[in-house]
Amino acid sequence: MPKTARPTIADVARRAGVSKGLVSFALNDRPGVSPDSRTRILAAAEELGWTPNVRARSLSTGRSFAGGLVIARSTDVIDADPFFPSFIAGIEDAFSASGQVLVLAVATSRRQETEIYRSLAVDQRVDGVILTDLRTQDDRIALVADLGLTAVTLGRPAVPSPFPAVCVDDGAGIRHAVAHLVALGHRRIAHVAGPDGMLHARRRADAFRSEVAAAGIEGTVIATDFSAAEGAAATGALLDAAAPPTAIVYSNDHMALAGLGVARRRGLRVPADLSITGFDDIELGRFLDPALTTVGTDARSWGAVAARTLLEAVDGSAAEHVDLPEPALIVRESTGPAPRPPAA
User: Model-level pTM?
Assistant: First the structure.
């Protein structure tokens, strides 16, 4: 059977009774189209099942109509971390509404990561990229700029950057968690952090140190790779200390859930013997016993904002930095008053 012909702008124009130029203006949301004509054109396009011909648009504009996201983490960590699926869903929300596609790649080494960016630029596979997991000395900023790619960063880099940034206060949630625990009477609090080379992990750890110092209490930080396995190992090391903490602040929910399991297998009651806080507010944490106190974030919204900011930059607009709302602490059942010291 012959393939069904794909509806064209000319077909939409005939159905709506207008010129092809007016259809193009309406479908690309450009000014100069009356509300009645725009409504009629969009209705005709929907009736015919018209969709943008990305190949034709690419040839006529020199654009790929695609954005890139390169994730440089262990595949095991990506598989278990709920942040990236939500973040990617947010990117897709914005891209799909604009006829864009997402080119996603995972790099397991710095060399491979560099080659992926070079390939994306040389082959003109993307118009721009979203840079996540910023590093303390991030050479990707200069690399992407030298390759002529447009970019947006998730967070403000610690190095000079010509790109707009979508920012959230990395330390705010940790400060809220520590303040909550101090108010409950805790004086030995630990932080199970992410990799020290990741800027947002370091900023969270710095916020923890600053908050416990301001409270005049004891604080310990252990860096991990953000995985449940290293979160569990860090918890074990903290609980084996001569003076173990009475509360642990984790840098993601995944590690917090692992830590809760370690504590309970040792016979500790949460929160009577040990209080635990997470970060990200994943769905599973709400249904545990006890339900997890955590910092609420909206990774899907972050992805959508980052994608829209990238599209503005690609279109030549003066894309500006975007400051996202400060995350809030969601208090549930995994935190409680500090245990009383044993009687002398």
Answer: 0.79
